[in-house]
């Protein structure tokens, strides 16, 4: 089961080619969300290496940050960025739940989604540039990538419903035991506390979870639950919040 869960997590969250899982059920799907930070360790390493190399050759901090975040987006097929834009479009489209979900299902992005995407990317890039200038950009890039994926276990924990009867959201909604989500948070917070001053690491992970929780609560209230797009939006908001906490 663990191997199927890891293959599902890596195959869903990254462009790394892995064999298809033998079985995908709620147990496997829940474990895949718990293993999300582990699945994206290669992306976190790439982001950190780009920041480190940029500092070594004297690139402007903003350019290094943009390259690092661009590599992460490329390594995840832009999946979460697309989810963020679609979620913003849905939340801004109409107070009618069905209408909002229809808007989110479309493949295009409206002005609300595009504006949200641009603003969040600017926040992420500016915050990572600040962390680079402050001397802990490599650690900040890695922590943000991992914390952003860590929030998936929170968003899929028991009690969180699916907004639709089908799709990724229906597969993973409520599939993660609350205790497992707490363990993921504790491991991420503890790891971050070792990479930067302990209080800063704790605050970064806590803010990532807090920001994702706020978006999650709004989507559950407004849409009736989560979708794959909502999960992507929570990831990107979590990354932005973690980087803001590490930006100085």
Give descriptors for this structure:
single chain; globular; 248 residues; mainly alpha
**Poorly predicted regions:** none
How large a portion of the residues is in β-strands, by DSSP E?
under 5%
Structural class: mainly alpha
Please describe the biggest sheet, giving its number of strands, its sense, and whether it closes into a barrel.
none
* Counted beta strands: 0
Rounded mean pLDDT is 95
Q: What would you call the shape? A: globular
Instruction: Give the SSE string.
Output: HHHHHHHHHHHHH
Number of domains as seen in the coordinates: 1
* Cα-atom radius of gyration: 17 Å
The helix count comes to 13
Helix residue percentage: over 70%
Give the CA-CA distance, first to last residue.
42 Å
Walk me through what this model shows.
The protein is mostly helical and 248 residues long. The chain has one domain (41-245). Helix content is 77%, strand content 0%.
Summed up:
The protein has 248 residues and is mostly helical. It is 77% helix and 0% strand. The longest helix is centred in the last third of the chain and has 26 residues, at 198-223.
């Amino acid at each position: 089961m663990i191997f199927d869960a890891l293959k599902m997590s890596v195959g869903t969250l990254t462009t790394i080619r892995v064999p298809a899982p033998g079985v995908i059920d709620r147990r496997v799907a829940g474990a895949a969300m718990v293993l999300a930070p582990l699945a994206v360790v290669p992306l976190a390493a790439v982001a950190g290496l780009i920041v480190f190399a940029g500092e070594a050759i004297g690139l402007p901090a903003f350019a290094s940050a943009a390259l690092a975040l661009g590599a992460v987006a490329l390594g995840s097929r832009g999946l979460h960025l697309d989810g963020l834009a679609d979620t913003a479009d849905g939340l801004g489209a109409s107070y009618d739940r069905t209408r909002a979900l229809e808007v989110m299902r479309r493949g295009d992005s409206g002005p609300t989604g595009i504006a949200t995407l641009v603003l969040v990317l600017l926040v992420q890039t500016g915050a990572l540039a600040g962390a680079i200038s402050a001397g802990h950009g490599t650690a900040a890039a890695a922590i943000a990538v991992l914390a952003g994926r860590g929030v998936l276990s929170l968003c899929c924990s028991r009690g969180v419903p699916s907004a639709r009867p089908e799709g990724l959201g229906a597969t993973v909604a409520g599939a993660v035991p609350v205790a497992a989500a707490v363990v993921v948070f504790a491991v991420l917070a503890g790891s971050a506390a070792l990479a930067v001053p302990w209080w800063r690491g704790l605050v970064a992970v806590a803010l990532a979870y807090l920001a994702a929780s706020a978006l999650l609560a709004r989507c559950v209230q407004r849409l009736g639950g989560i979708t794959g797009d909502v999960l992507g939006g929570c990831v990107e908001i979590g990354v932005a919040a973690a980087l803001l906490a590490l930006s100085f």
